[in-house]
Amino acid sequence: MGKNIMALMLQEYEQFTKSERKIVDYVLEHPAETQYISITDLSAVCEVAVSTISVFCRKLKLGGFNDFKLELARAALLNDSQRQEDAEAGEIQSGDSLPAVMGKVLHTVQDAAGRAYHMLAESAVDRAVSLLVEARQVVCLGQGNHSIVSLAAWAQFSTNSGKFKTIQDSHLQTVILSTLMPEDAVLYFTYTGATHEVMEAAEVIRERGAKLILVTRYLNSPASAYADTVLLCGPNEQPMRFGSTAALIAQLYVVEVLLSEFKRREPAQSEKCRQSVGKALAQKVL
User: Whole-model pTM above 0.85?
Assistant: First the structure.
């Protein structure tokens, strides 16, 4: 399953030059017009050189500007198809039958995982796993519903390494953050990346010189400025939907990706830890 060009541009936005970001900004605002524009006209409206556009296309692993426009057309078709699926799924209504409710929930779950895949940048995952592997200890944190994800992350990683920790109480979170060392890392789950709790945590993490891996919906959230890498995921939540299941599923997908890559890079350590955990847990089975 290939990622569409719009998702790729958003994922790699921070990696582009200032001139290349002008191209992305224009394309995101005018996706339909860009499908029919010439490379010289695009260079004029974006006030960049034609060569900059060519380099930009190569960074996206495309053969040239024509390939870029073809990918934009393909993304438009995918978006039209997605809008049709969304219309068919829709919100659960009081008059829906039980089969309809089950089908709509299934669609929401599948859509959440699919969107998380398209939003997640390989470079960000690579950086995050490198930080997890190199860290002396990793603290998994989150607030509200996202504390559930941090607990699940710790539970999964703890069967592969003893250096993962978590804490649910907000005061004790501050205690553990205030004792971090530069060789430590924090895996923090948040939807907005713009709460008082995450900002306070980010500031303490920076003061201590530790690394911050941020899992959030918004690349340019306030907390992202403090992060060593940002893992994007999550649906577009309506204002009155607080901590939706779709958002949690998206973050759990990210956890599974990180865990799988961590195990791939540290097979001996992971296997040794799993064997030890498995032996201990076997004693609890009747």
Answer: no
